[in-house]
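Appendix B, example 12.
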Amino acid sequence: MIKYFGTDGIRGRAHEFLTPELAKKVGLGLSLLACKEVIVGQDTRASGAVLAAAITEGALEAGIDVYRAGVVTTPMLSHLSKRKQTFGVMISGSHNPYHDNGIKVFNCGRKLSQDEENILEFFLNEKASLKPMSRGRAMALEDGFQIYKELFEDFSVDTDLKIGLDFANGAAWDVGKKIFAHLGWNFHSIGDEPDGKNINAGCGSTHPENIAGFVRENAFDLGFTFDGDADRVLAVDGGGEIYNGDHLIYVFARHMPEEGSLNGRGVVLTRMSNLGLFKALKELGIAVETTDVGDKYVF
């Protein structure tokens, strides 16, 4: 039996491993998870529209109503799935080149459980069949950004810092600007001209030297760089020093107890985290739980 799901959904080269036929079967198979409606989103890579259309067609044939979200970030798709208490499918190859793509499936905001993945894989390997269903309805998701805005509309930090942003020519190129503009911060961006093939190309979180140079050359105070679907972020300071995910977790873990906002006074890390981070958190008296790699295990 073919193993389709990895640490973060299904991934592969578009139109070779990850074909429209496979995507359509994923859409069909959602009905085996008692899915009644699904939100479908994508990043900016060229193959995204074809795969999203295939997912949509499969879901419709299975009697599932489909909300088309268009280009959204993975965190936004996850939140929409949680907020509407329904399924979500994100078409994205994350930090990989444009010729790769992927399918991430959410159930009420969380990645599928192992049991749910097994059900889909059983179907994808043609080990199960579906009963004929009346066709579902397809419609545009009109209120996506307004729902996402609920997370930050009351957030307010007055600052005169100059901020550089690299959106990796990916999913955050538009919504990211809207968020920072809403906050009223002084920001300047690069990696915000997607053409379907330039996602993650010499930019974004896999090329942090790009944002580091942008910040230094323009005398900004700090910068942030995202990957293609904006579920990964790195930071740089005014001197161009790069701070990876482990650094950021340490910063949050050190600051949040001061506000009383670190629930359980603990942090969850994957087995890939730097050993230095484990030691530093221990010195702060912060408990650590370790999981396998993949946010479905972390959450």
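The chain has three domains: 5-147, 157-243, 253-298. The longest helix spans residues 245-259.
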